[in-house]
Each structure stands twice: as structure tokens, then as C-alpha cells.
User: Fold these one by one.
Assistant:
Number 1:
Amino acid sequence: MTKANQDLIKKLEIQAARALEEKANTEALFASIGEGVIATDTKGTIIRVNKPALEILGYRKTDLIGHWFTEAVVAVNVDGSIVDNQQRPIAKAYLTGRTIIERIYYMRNDGTIIPVLVNVSPVLMRGKPIGAILIFRDMSEEMRNDRLKMDFIGIASHQLRTPLTAVVTYAHMLEENFGGKLSDIQLSFVNVIITASRRMNELVGTLLNITRIEAGNIRVEPKLVQIENIVQEIMDELKPEADSKRIKLDLAVKAELERIKTDKLLVHEVFANIISNAIKYTPPGGKIMITITDRFNDIVVSVKDNGYGIPVEDQRYIFIKFFRSSDAMKHDVSGTGLGLYLTKVLVDNLGGEIWFKSLRNKGTTFFVSLPRSGLERKAGQFTLEI
Amino acid sequence: MIQKPKSLYLKVVRITDHYLGPAADRFIRRQIENHLNKHPEELAQADLKELISWIEVSMAVLTADRKIIREYLAKLQSLISSKH
């Protein structure tokens, strides 16, 4: 064997040893992650899975490796029905190219259902998608605590409603001089009571809506409605708020829109939240443009502002309950982090989708699509609190 | 009379409609907007290769039927060589 050949063999041996070491390191890293991790290839086949993932799902490695992810790891709704493939976080991650963080339910090997928080991202190599990586953790304990917390909030909110109504009614009576003429200073005090009570009333309403909708207790009553009319109604309601900040609210309807069968109350709450947020997070003198277009099977409403925008690092969390962006807290200290969560849940209930684009200090555009095919009636104990 | 779609985007949607039905438009529109950062109507022939690679991985989580996926991708590939 020539010296050149020997050198080449040695070189190859070193490279092979390095590759093996790198592989072992990657395996060790993968195995040491405390949360469940599953990696898939371009065909959606599971190519790697770690021990916590197997423990959470109750499978053996051979049950998953080499199997089609969508079928091997079954995602279900809270009622046990199978989640549509297009609604699964992995599909959304591929559709958007972004990391998707969602709370969903997986069916374990023994048929039990567990809530999990999934974080899924497409994996790119030189800009080309080569698969996806899913990180998830069992949320059972957190969900139990969350449920107890929401039950408590639900009861407390309900109990707050009655005394709050009395405070608001009597404050208005004082304002109208039913208890005798008030001095200017007394009137200003009463106005503070009215404003604060209104805010508290809104918060109680939001909390009640969330507890009821999470319990599947909200009635859905579809009727033929014109989306344009609902949006116009909301714009009229929010005009004083916009005027007080000299914000221009405009509406453009770019299609001949037919009426669709949907729940007016839910649609109203969705757009009232989005437009009111746009006003809140747009500086004085700003502009908000609402556009309604139609797309094959949907009506799409976009709300574009030239406000503060959402920082990139916060964008993936904004539909998560109680999350507040650092920038949002600077501009509106009184927010609760519930508005967009509620909006997302309502849009889901309407069979639609919500997404956004945002650039810091340039503005945000929220998009909501609603199916033109309409909605089915859904029984429930309550209607939405407005 | 059925009219031929004018834009490349509509051609892609029309092919996709056969496989995804009513979800076709939303599926394609979001891929174009999110991955190519373009308005769907601005989709150009040069974008098709990248778009198809995203469609391929997305379809792979929607169906395990590789035959259908291959057939669908082949129809999309034919748009690359066709005159638009």
C-alpha cells in the first residue's frame, strides 16, 4: 500500500470517528431533554424520538420510529374526536414556516387522553424544509390547577356582578343629580367611579366568557348576518375612543359580500377586541384601516394599524392566556392578557382562523377568516357577556 | 363555460383544489404569503421550486398516501416548465 493510500485511510478513519462522536453527542443531547421530543422527515415519518416522549405517550420506540407521525401520534379534541390534520400544529408550522406553540390533546397508547403543550418548528437546511421537530410536555397537572383556578374565577366573577351592577347604577344616578346637585369636584369623583366600574365590569365579563367557553357552555346561534354591518357597528361604538386619540378609523369593502350564517354576538366580540386593541396600541394621530375581502370559501377581515407593533420575540405567545407583551405593558398597564386569548378561542368556535403580521414601531395587521359556508347551531347554557 | 385561470397562483390553487377541496386556497395562499413573503397574485415561475418543497412537507402531514402526493407534486412541477 502506498504512503498516499495509508494517509487517505487514516484521514477517513479520523473523519469516521469524529462523525460517530458527533452522532453520539447528538443522541445524548436528544435523550437528555426533559420534555418529549419527536423528529420527522420530509415524508412526515418519525425518525427520532426520546425517552420522555415515549413515557408521555405510553409507546415503545418501535411503535413510533418509521411510522407516519400523523397516524402514530393521535391528536384529539377534548371530546375525543380526532383533530383534522390541517388543524394540527405540525401542519400549521409547515403552512406558516414558524414555530407553533399550542395546547392540544394526544391520545396515549392505552386510549387515555392527555393535554400537552406542543412546540413545533419546521427544520430547514439551506432554506429548504427537511422535516419538523416537536417538543411537548404533559400538561395534566397544570390543567387541573388551571381548571380549579378558572372555577374559582368563574364563581368569584359571577358573585361580583350583582354588587357591581348596584355600584354602576347608583353612580349614574348620582351623576344625573338624583341625589341632589353635585359640586364639580363631587362629579369628577363620581366619573372616576363610573369609569373604574365599567372597566371592572368588562373584566368580569371577559373572565365569565372564558370560563364558560372553556367549559363548552357558550351557546352558538347562527343567523344570516352581514359582516360589514357588524364591523361598521363596532366602528361606531369605538369612534369616541378613537377620536379621543385622533385616530382615523376607515373601512374598505373589496367584495360583493353575501350574508353568512354565523353567530353575531361572537363575531361582534372578536372584532370589538381586535379593533379596540388596535386603538389601544396605536399612538395618537394614527390610522386604522379595516378591510373586508372575500376569498374562495372565506370572508377575510383585516385590521391594520400603524401602531407600536409586537416584538418578534413575543409574537409566538400572544394568543396564550395571561400573556402580555413587554411593549404592551408599557403602553397599557391595565391589560389582562386575556383579550387575544378569548378572541382566538371565539374564532375557533366560529370555524375561522386568526393570524397576524407585525413590525415593531411600524404596526400590526390582524386577519380573521370566517367560513362562508356558515356554522351549525350549538347548544349551551350561556350566551356571551358583552 | 369554465374559464382558464389567469394567474399562476390560481393555476396552483386549481390543481390543489382537486386534492384539498375547499381548503386549497387557504393552503396555497398561506404558503405563498409566509414562505415567499409575497402577495399570492405575485407568484412567479421562479418561486415554484421553493413553494413546491413547502407543499411537499405540508402534504406529508396531511396524508400518508405517497402516490397521491407524488401525483399532485408532478402536476405542480409541470407548471415550472409550462409557459405562463
Number 2:
Amino acid sequence: MASPKHVPSPIALPPTRRHKPVPLPPVDEVKAKLYDHAEAQRIRSGQLGEWFTTPLAGGEWTEWGKRAKPDKIGMTFMAINRISANPEPTNEPARRLMHSRYIKTHHAIDPEMEEKIAPKYGTPREMDRRDQVWIEHAAELAEEALDRQIRPARQLHWEDMTPLGAGVERAFDQFATYLIQAMYLCSDASGPWNGLIHYGFAEVKSFLAYELFDYNLMCGLLRKRVMANGGGMGVQVDGLGAGLIDVCNEASRGFVGEVEREFSSVVFAIDVLFNGLLLEMARLGSAGAHSRFDRHLMTQLVQDCARHVAFGCRRISFYLRNCPDREEAAVKLHLVADRLEPLQAENHLLNPKVLEPLAVMLGGGAGAVDRGMAILREFWPQFAGNYLARLDAIGLARRDRCLIPALAPF
Amino acid sequence: MTIPIDKAEAVERIKQLPQVRRWREGNYEPGAWFTSKPAEEGGIWGSWGHRFQPNRRGVSFVELNRADRHPVPDEGLGLLPDREAGVEPDSPRYDYPLNQKYQVWSYNVESLYEEAVSRQWSATRDIPWEKLEPMPEDQERALCQFVSFLHTVEFVPGDTLPYYMARVDPSFPEVRLFMSSQCADEARHMEVFGKRMYANGGGPGMEPGAEALLQFDPRKSVLPQEIARTVSGVNPTWDFLAYSYFVQMIGEAVVLDFFRFGEFLGRNPCDKEMFRRIMQDEARHVSFGTMRIKYYLDHAPRQEREAASEMLHYLASACEASATGFGLLLQPSAVEPFALLAAGSPGNLDKGWDVVREFWATAVEEYINRCERAGIPRRGRCMLPEQAPF
């Protein structure tokens, strides 16, 4: 048998390089120089720095005396934003890399030095505009992301995992293998973008970190489930990332170079469209689950996907309402959708390694797969229907051009 | 893959898909995924017959992997789902840049991941914010300056880890999973420090990096500028081993010592609990990095092991003598608040510096011990003075 073809890993990333050792000064010489470090000298002189000497009002220190009160949930972002002088990021370009919007930039650092210490590309200064990053109610969504994250030790009851018939077990395992693959794709495609978002957008960065963990946490749980109930990992779903991988790689330009990148395309592809489809699949998985445990797992996945979709919709909605040229932005997103919808319909929604296991689960076994297919046929309109309803809500109506079939093509 | 241009063409293409034609004819017989044997018997199905009796901890990767008759492979399989998945014979294999077990694995990654999952906490709910008590002005100022510094530092790993996750072959899911848990941890740390700034009347402190920048004099640089620049900040183009050393073994280790000291100096149950929880998280990250470097050096082919060891020693020397080692241990927004918090009042500052000197010696000693455990012995080579230079 010919050996399989090798291709690069799906998500394009910058190449890595190794530090090349070069001679360094001797240890003793270094230590002697370190002794003369400015901070060491200051400490020896018994002084404290400007952080201590600056006036609490009118100097480098800000907001002395403000005290946030926990709200009914706890000490939320909303509680601190209620009293903060900077409750939301502004459109002011970021002047530092590692810098929170809550902290004032130092007056003595001049623009020339600022340019040197804060290169734009490949850093969190790449995305420092509200229209590129922000969403309405970012604080609430970030809080929800952590609050609703599954706590397996507390919430999962492994004793509810019951042995299933071989056919149904195999179907569930195949479905779980597909979900694992799908969530790695989301994690790989969207994860690196967090490094390009400025620290001023703390709530969004938090949300994206939790979203990344959601994907992987669920992958871990699905793997455990698959490897514990008599079955095992199923078959890779070829073509699952059709369109998505190209859109994400084109948007990121491989995260290389001093070029503009298109975060909105990735959010649309991963959070709005793909997570939207996964959400419907998880609902079907929940309906077809044959044990309380499996149903619980799928219900959790529904919640996770719904949160990711909510982020995507709010992000695209904010983007369209606040970007410099709404019309151009909408055209770009429509083109992304034009590419993704047919490819995802063919390779994802109609993939036999996705639909057939669901049909077996929904029908109740391999002998009743026709019943499962009938349920899928009946459910089918919700794929496009729910997706289009979301797009209506965010101001990107596609009812006249959507390429996901409105009715089941089988 | 061609993209249909209009609705009619899209509909037509879908109608012509072999599976759709089959289904339209009423043939719902599941395909080879359902009928094939597992891969070890020559089929396309991944693996079969795995059974594990959950115990009171549920199902943990530590025990699950121990019970698995298939060991973690030395080389990734180049598939899109986890290891032990199956694949069609004509499907491509994906060349993930990090596809050797020795490049990614850590001795304790399974248990660390399980710990990470079970110890997730919430900055909103799990800190006893109501137990904060008003502190003397100078003490609150010191604490707020310290947490202002930590608030921004905590973003760094979460910005860079996802790049490495996407490079790891999915045959090693435990590694990807652990790194994702670290991203969540770091987000929570950033959040809790941001909240603490506003929680007790202090407010955000002065820009934490400003003093070091304003003090900086290239003529007094310990290392030649061209070297100092290459180790001044991590970015996703760094080799993964170097990344682990920089972020998880020296950077986070120093920060872990900061947290330990913060907990020790905490004046109320809220601050103590905040630092205690963060310390647990950070200790996991440091442990992963340390044991990962050790695994690498224990298992890489001889030539690579030697090259990696040489690179790590070089990087360690350079980092110790610059911002990540010495510079971090002398970060004005950390050590000065420490001294003031330890002193209890500005009038007692000398006493505070005595405590900070002890902190310095402990931090350096622990770092050297950790390097020893990782297989990069630094005793006698370490650029960090064993006693504080003040």
C-alpha cells in the first residue's frame, strides 16, 4: 500500500527558530555589573520609587479611594467597571504592549520611546480598536463564560454512564470523534488571535481564553467517555474543516508579516457559523443520547456552543455598527459566508461520518437507522433557519443568498 | 476544492454527492465507519474494547492511560482527532510541527491536567471579598502597586500558548488540554488582580513598567544589546523548549515566588486566599515546564539532547542576567511593595528589606534546585547572585 500523502498541519503558524548560543561574559563579570543595576542602587540608598512618592491625586496614581462593591453574583467585572474611570476601552490607539486600560500611562515616556517599546505587528497592539475587538456587554459574557464552565468533578456523574449496545456505542464514539476533531479545529483556528488583542480589552481576552478552555475541556471529557464505555475512538472526518481552514488562514496570513489581518472573518467562520452548526449537532446528540451521562455531556456542549455563538453574534454585530465602512465590511462577510456555506453543507452537514452515527443514535440502533434519518430530515430546516435568524439579528441578512439547503436534500 | 457560485449550482452539487444519492434512494446502510474493524486488525475504525470503571474521582487520564493497552506513541499519527482514532487509507497525514512525544510530553502532564480541571475557581465568587478590611494608606498603596504589575504580567502566557497548542500533534491531547487550562488560569489571574485593585480603596497603581524603562541605560547593560534583545520578550516564533524555559520555568517560577510572598504578607483573609489560589495554579504551570524540559532531555536523541542542553544553558544565562531573571527579581513594582508590606510601615523599611533579602536568597535557591530537577544544572553557572545585591 502506498504511504499516505503528507500535508502541513491545518492552521498556518509562523515557523519557530532556536536561539543560537553565542559567547556571554563570564559569571563574575555579570554579577559585578548586576550589582550596579539602577534599582539595586536605589534600594541601597533607602529610597522607594515613584509609585510611592507620586501624589495619590493628580500624579501617576489614579482612582485612589474608589471601592468596588460586590454585586449579587460576586466581585464581577461589572462591579469594578461601575466605579472605574475606564469602564470600557476607547478608540485611542494603544501606546504600550502590556498595558491594561485601568492603568494610566506614564507621562514621562515620550512618543519616540513608545514607538520603540511597542511594535504593532505580531503583538497585542495589532488589534487595539473597539470595532476590531469589542462587544456589547463584554463583562457579562466574560463572567458567564467562567460561571457556566463545566466543573466535571461536581457536575458529571460517571456512574450514570451505562453500557450500550455495540451499534449505539460505536455511533456515539464516532459522533464524539467528530466533535473532538471539530473542537480542536476551533481551538487551533481562534486561539492564537488572543495574542493580537490589546490588554485594554480584558473582558474579551478573558472570554476567549475561557472559550479555548471550553473546547479542550470538552475534548478531554469526550475522550474519557469514548475510552471508558467499551468502545474507542472512531474515524477521522475528512473535509470537516472545508472552507473554514482556508478562510482562517487567509484572515491570519499565517500570523506572519506586517499586514492587516481579518479577525472578523474568523469570528464569523468559527463562532457564528461553525459553532452554530455544532450547537445544532449537539442538540441532536442530546436527543439521541442513550444514557443520562451522554445526555448531560451533550447538554453541556449545547451550552458551550450557545455561548460561543453569542460571542460571535455580538462581535459581528458590534463590528458592523462601528467599523469605518459598514457596507464594505458586510460585503466581505457575505463573501466569507458564500464560501463557507456550501462547503460546510457538503462536507460537514452531509458527511456520512457525522449524519449516520446521529441517525443510528436517534433511531435507536443500526436496525432503525431509517427512523433516525427521518428525524434528521425533519430537523434539517433548523440548521439554516437558526443560522439565518442569528444573521438577521446581527444585521447581516442572508435569506436570499444562503447556500445551506433550507430543506433536507435526502 | 471548488466553490459553487450560486444557489442552483450548490443544490446540484449536493444532489450529486454519492451519499445523498444513496440516501435519496432509501439506502441508509451506514458506511465503513460502522462496519470496519479497528485499525490494529487492519480496518479504518480507531480502536475498540476500551472499558474503564469510574472510581470516586470519576475518570482521570492518569488511570485511563494506565489501563489503556496502547501506550502513548513516541511519534504523533498526524491525524486531526486524538490518538487511537482511525483514518481512511487515502486520507492525508498532517505534519504538525511538534509531533514527537519527547518534544511535548511532561512526566506529570496527566495528573497536572486533572488537578487543573478540579481546581478551577472563580475570581468573582471564590474570593472572600467581603472580608477585605481597610488597610493603612501605605499598605494599600503597596498592595495595589504590586497587583497592578501582576494584572498585566498575567496576560503574557495566554497570548502565546495557543500558538504552541496548535502545533502539537493531537495524538498528545493531554498536552494540549493542559496548556488550554493554563490559558484559563492566566485569564483568571489577570481578572482577580484587576478586581483587587478596585476592591479596597486603593485603585490602579502607577504604570508598572515605567520606572524600569525610565531607569534603563543601554551603556550599563550587562549583556551586549544584540543578545539582551533576543531574550527580552517571548514571542510565538520561539522554539517550544525555549518557550517552556522562559515562560514556565524562570518567568512563572519567579512570579510563583512573588505569589508565595504575597500570601505570606497578606493582611486579611481575602488577600491570603487570592494569593493561595493563584499560587496553586502557578505551581502547576512551573511543574509542567520543569518536568517537560526534563522529559525532553531524558528522551531526545543524543545529538538533539546535546544541542538542546547547550541552548538551554545559554538561554538560562542570558535570561538570568536580564529582564526575566534579575530584572524581574528587581522589578520596582514588586520588591518595593514587598519591603513596605513586610515592614508594616515606611518607618520600618530596613526590616522590610531584610525580609526581601531572605526572599531573594530563597527564590534563587529554588530556581537553581528546579533547574537541577529539569536536568540543566545551573549551580556554579547561574548568573543570579545568590544573595540580594542590596
